[in-house]
Design a protein that fits this description.
Length: about 180
C-alpha cells in the first residue's frame, strides 16, 4: 500500500527539482548555437540610403555589436539611451532594423537619436532568422574575425554594458 504512494511522490520530487533548478536560470542567457561560430554574412540595403549596401565584410577587422531593433519594439526604446552611450564611447554599433517599415524606422531614429554607425534593413526578417533572433531587441558581440562571441537577449542595461559588454570588447580588442 505504501509503495503505491511512493512512486507518485518520487515523480513529484523529481519534477519539483527540475522546476526549482529552472527558476535559478537567467532568462536573458538563452544558449545560442552561434556562439564561437562565424556570424552569418549579409549585405543589405542601408536604411538611410537604400541604394547602398552594407554588410558583415565591411566590419571585418573590427570588434562590433549588431543590435536587432524595430520602431514598434517597446523594449528597444528602453535600451536606446544605453546604445547612444556606447556609441559615444566609440563602440561600433550596427543596427539591424527588423521587420519594420522604413519610414517608421527613420522617424524613430530622428526622434530618439541614432547610435548606429550603420543601419541595415531586414524587412522580411531573413537575416534575423539566420542569427536565431527570438524577438527584439537582441544584441550580438562580434570579434575582428567575424565570430559571434556573445548574445544578449532583451534590452541592454547599464549593468550589462559595464559588467559584460565593455570587458569583453576590451578583451577582444586586445586579442588583436
Amino acid at each position: 500500500m505504501k509503495a503505491k504512494f511512493l512512486v507518485p511522490l518520487a515523480i513529484f520530487l523529481v519534477l519539483a527539482g527540475f522546476l526549482g533548478y529552472g527558476l535559478t536560470l537567467n532568462p536573458r542567457e538563452v544558449p545560442s548555437p552561434l556562439i564561437d561560430k562565424p556570424a552569418p554574412g549579409f549585405s543589405l540595403a542601408r536604411l538611410e540610403a537604400p541604394g547602398q549596401q552594407f554588410g558583415t565584410e565591411d566590419m571585418r577587422g573590427k570588434v562590433w555589436l549588431l543590435n536587432v531593433w524595430a520602431s514598434w519594439c517597446v523594449s528597444c526604446r528602453q535600451e536606446h539611451p544605453q546604445l547612444v552611450a556606447l556609441a559615444r564611447q566609440g563602440v561600433p554599433v550596427i543596427g539591424l532594423n527588423y521587420k519594420d517599415e522604413r519610414d517608421a524606422a527613420l522617424k524613430w531614429l530622428k526622434d530618439h537619436g541614432n547610435p548606429y554607425a550603420q543601419t541595415v534593413a531586414d524587412p522580411d526578417g531573413r537575416i534575423g532568422i539566420d542569427y536565431g533572433v527570438y524577438g527584439t531587441p537582441e544584441t550580438f558581440l562580434i570579434d575582428r574575425g567575424g565570430v559571434i562571441r556573445y548574445k544578449h537577449i532583451g534590452p541592454v542595461t547599464p549593468d550589462t554594458i559595464r559588467n559584460v559588454l565593455l570587458p569583453r570588447i576590451a578583451e577582444l580588442s586586445r586579442a588583436g
